[in-house]
């Protein structure tokens, strides 16, 4: 045994450099292969941003003009394993100025004017059996870049359009929007019952892992205000029992609070979600954590408090205290209701999609979806994020006391 071991040890020692180089090369190949599917290698925010997505596209000279009165959108995938979105999209399309219809009947693929795929339900083994050259395939996603899993280069040259909350998408689909009524008679609205709001702040947080590290801000706010956190990340185990339009709590209970911490879980570009929009519909002042490039410019003016609009958190806390204790100042955050109407919807962009299908458009294809996603102020999801999920959950449940 000793001679055998000595023999192979001599061989290894003689060629150890070659073995080591070979092992490094093979490990690198395996790592990059796995990264194609699982995104092992962390990615970070870029320093240069584009207002359009042309640099990720291959655009052709051919122009498409569909000679039809009504356009048909085919839903090829589910939306998080459910076909619920077909009904919601149909309702949204009924409000559009142009005529469009939606279907999930795959037998109508040849007559469809566009095919919609939800990013979270993609399956390479379940793609349409053929392509119609004038029929754009659209990738729909509302997830922040920090939650986009897998290397999207595997989907290069498959999708023609994108549809998301990102302003540089082919079709802009924010989580909400507002209608300007200033050109008509100002709307009279009932005053918010300031004196009935006996509680300070509430938050709904069910995803504990986040790049924004919201628990740190909540911890500081808890030193000055009563903060009730609902959802899976609640230390007090406060549950979301009222599931209607993302409200989580019964509207009567919400009206007892003065502020909602509408903190996003990441500082992704243009990422403003239903946390903000539903706050406006709940008649509660949203306190947000929007950094540069995050506010997409499509939010209601003078309707929120952004902690990053202040020089530091102490200054922000002092201002919130002033609003909290001053009824006139508090009421001023609802003046927007005289001129604007807020709408919270995950399907806000479907009239834009319908309009686009009624207009001439150039043929195009996304050649580099991975870079399109990484063109952001936040990093893309990787497997190492899973390690920090448990840490963040612990901190959420123990730090904001």
From TrEMBL:
EC number of the protein: 2.4.1.-
Domain called Fucosyltransferase C-terminal: residue spans: 195-372
Gene Ontology terms: cellular component: Golgi cisterna membrane; Golgi membrane
MF (Gene Ontology): fucosyltransferase activity
Subcellular location: Golgi apparatus membrane; Golgi apparatus, Golgi stack membrane
Keyword Transmembrane included in the entry's annotation: yes
Pathway this chain belongs to: Protein modification; protein glycosylation
UniProt KW Transferase keyword: yes
Top-level taxon in the UniProt lineage: Eukaryota
A Pfam family assignment: Glyco_transf_10
Catalytic EC class: transferase
Family, per entry: Belongs to the glycosyltransferase 10 family.
Protein name: Fucosyltransferase
Organism (species): Mytilus galloprovincialis
